[in-house]
Design a protein that fits this description.
The chain is of the alpha+beta class and about 180 residues long. It has 2 domains: about 45 residues, no CATH class; about 130 residues, Nuclear Transport Factor 2, Chain: A, CATH 3.10.450.50. Strands 1-2-3-4 form a 4-stranded antiparallel beta sheet. A hairpin with a 2-residue loop joins strand 3 and strand 4. Helix 1 runs parallel beside helix 3. The longest helix has 16 residues. The structure holds zinc ion.
Length: about 180
């Protein structure tokens, strides 16, 4: 509880509210983990920090440059990584806009926002890529994204398809692969 009080002082009201919502139904350990995670990703994310996407680059030189600017991911993998970071940082509009319109649900934005609840993303591993390079128009990225949902550890293993149109990569859809 002391830890929560210490971290909560650094959170904005909105972050604190989300922290409290995420903690409903979790153990005290989960409670502390969520507090730390929110504090780190939402309150202290600096451009010099390592990017959440796991590229090994600083956040400022990696996914941060794609939010609401004219800089576009050059490869399918880069788009995949930036979409993962967008889930971590809850950038719903970026996720909506980079999902190909033909594959986008009518209430996509609402669904994306709903999917943020109780999620604590822990890391992204790119398993394999096929095409998706700067000179390609189609690409496939297989990845494993680890997360905790309401403090329960889980992972998403997916094979995602991407398409480039007029110089912009879009996520089409993904096939979820079963875990062995
Ligand atoms: Zn990144």
């Amino acid at each position: 509880m002391t830890l929560f009080i210490r971290y909560s002082k650094a959170l904005t009201d909105k972050q604190l509210k989300r922290c409290l919502v995420a903690m409903i139904g979790t153990s005290e350990h989960g409670f502390v983990t969520i507090c730390r995670f929110l504090f780190k990703t939402l309150s202290t994310m600096k451009k010099s920090d390592l990017c959440p996407c796991g590229s090994g680059q600083s956040y400022g030189n990696c996914c941060n440059q794609f939010w609401g600017s004219s800089v576009l991911p050059a490869t399918a993998e880069q788009l995949m990584r930036s979409r993962y970071t967008a889930f971590v940082l809850e950038k719903a509009h970026y996720l909506n806009d980079t999902h190909h319109p033909q594959y986008r649900a009518a209430d996509e934005l609402k669904n994306i926002k709903a999917s943020f609840r109780g999620m604590n993303w822990l890391g992204l591993t790119i398993v394999a890529t096929e095409l998706g390079g700067v000179n390609d128009d189609e690409g496939v990225v297989e990845f494993i994204a680890q997360f905790k949902h309401l403090a329960k550890p889980d992972a998403l293993h997916e094979r995602s398809r991407f398409r480039k149109e007029q110089g912009q990569w879009f996520y089409l859809h993904g096939d979820v692969l079963s875990e062995d």
